[in-house]
UniProtKB/TrEMBL annotation:
A Pfam family it matches: ADH_N
GO molecular function, one term: alcohol dehydrogenase (NAD+) activity
Protein name, UniProt field: Alcohol dehydrogenase 1
GO biological process: formaldehyde catabolic process
Annotated InterPro entries: ADH-like_C (IPR013149), ADH-like_N (IPR013154), ADH_Zn_CS (IPR002328), GroES-like_sf (IPR011032), NAD(P)-bd_dom_sf (IPR036291)
Membership in a protein family: Belongs to the zinc-containing alcohol dehydrogenase family.
Cofactors demanded by this protein: Zn(2+)
Gene3D superfamilies in the cross-refs: Medium-chain alcohol dehydrogenases, catalytic domain, NAD(P)-binding Rossmann-like Domain
Gene Ontology CC terms: cytosol
Segments forming domain Alcohol dehydrogenase-like C-terminal: 204-326
Keywords per UniProt: Metal-binding, NAD, Oxidoreductase, Zinc
Positions of the Alcohol dehydrogenase-like N-terminal domain: 34-162
Organism superkingdom: Eukaryota
Amino acid sequence: MATAGKVIKCKAAVAWEPNKPLVIEEIEVAPPQANEVRIKIVATGVCHSDLYHLLENMHEDGFPTVLGHEAAGIVESVGPGVTEFQPGDKVIPLFIAQCRECRFCRSPKTNQCEKAWAAMRSNAMSPLDSRFTCKGKKVLQFMGTSTFSEYTVVNTMAVAKIDPAAPLDKVCLLGCGICTGFGAAVNTAKVEPGSTCAVFGLGAVGLAAVMGCKSAGAKRIIAVDVNPDKFEKAKVFGATDFVNPKDHNKPISQVLAEMTNGGVDYSLECVGNVTVMRSALESCIQGWGVSVIVGWTNLDDFAARPIQLIAGRTWKGSLFGGFKGKDGVPAMVKAYLDKKVKLDEFITHNMTLDQINDAIELMKHAKWFNRSEQDCMLDLNCAASSPSCYVTLLHEKSGNQGNQGDEAVKNINGLINDTFQQFFGNVTIFVIRIKCQNLEWQQLSGHSSDCGGIRGD
Ligand SMILES: NC(=O)c1ccc[n+]([C@@H]2O[C@H](COP(=O)([O-])OP(=O)(O)OC[C@H]3O[C@@H](n4cnc5c(N)ncnc54)[C@H](O)[C@@H]3O)[C@@H](O)[C@H]2O)c1
Ligand SMILES: [Zn+2]
Ligand SMILES: [Zn+2]
């Protein structure tokens, strides 16, 4: 390749500081060093973890950076001594690497990799070194992947080679959300044929969890979401029943217990809300019920009565669906090509890298009401983008914004009511309501999960 061994100048969306729009800049991407490959990114999803880093400001040393960790691309060149990859290989970068050598990689019990963690600066969410510079400054590589760039350099232990027949604009979703939800059901919960499952939260992760339960042979899959618009989509992935917690005056765990003669065999929390995590656990049947936490939050501790576990329930967590990246991602790509898992159905928007801030806004605003994290996809080849579709979306958005805001407040009030009734009976929640109503719509959507739980601050 003509560019091999040379610095590549290309476009990337740089996050110079927290809470500010990303800036499309020309960056320099250095050639790959030993054990590295340089990848031309073809398509990337936008995931909530990117947003958490940008907006929740928990990694103060993590800027400037290039976000993005759910992508697919083509190897442009390889570093000295690299034989595992060749230019032209189709690949998916992995935020959960697999060195295949460390004690974690050698254990079938986990998908974590000690070597990969050791190479990361956790306070910055990026590796110790970066191949990116912009305007003379080093720019960090978020999660070691940095896929909001036309080119990136990734350690070979964090790259999965995939089938050359794979359409990159679809399989990019396997870089995070879809493997996460699907694997949580199949690998972590180990859903059994004939079982009854409940999936809480029907974003991309939850819908993929529904698909995982179905693929594992569950006979009944109860989809739980506060947004009824999600239910039709959940059916596409195999949901058999729907429960909207807002339609009930009693704890959701009680509703599910009544529907299932004592509780579900498996529950999966795909919201990222500690109150829902507790409800999901309590929705499991005593004796053998398994509840898996998939949703992510770092803002609150969770709680449950010990008797829940003493009575025989198991509470587990799942990272990237328990998949070891190099093994699991190509297998999921094959499953997609063999039509055993769906991907196309998750995608609702195609946009260009230049529209990255709009994609982030869509994700923030739509968090509760329209769509899920991964289904906003940036096509870095630009060819497939559709400005008119995008304008329509924006138009719909602004037309409905006030209503959605009101609806959001209603939903949140409903949730807080439910939550308080569950824990404290009918207490007055006036103060929290007022706080929620005073929130700007933008703020509300950005933090809806937290507000929707019990906080409201
Ligand atoms: N564990 C991992 O490896 C991993 C990887 C990726 C994402 N995640 C996390 O998974 C979670 C889900 O991601 P997503 O992209 O699907 O999110 P999303 O925001 O698109 O979907 C969340 C869904 O939960 C619903 N919801 C909100 N409050 C609810 C409540 N009280 N009860 C029932 N449903 C409720 C919303 O209406 C929405 O449909 C996030 O927390 C994300 O950070 C975890
Ligand atoms: Zn992600
Ligand atoms: Zn390892």
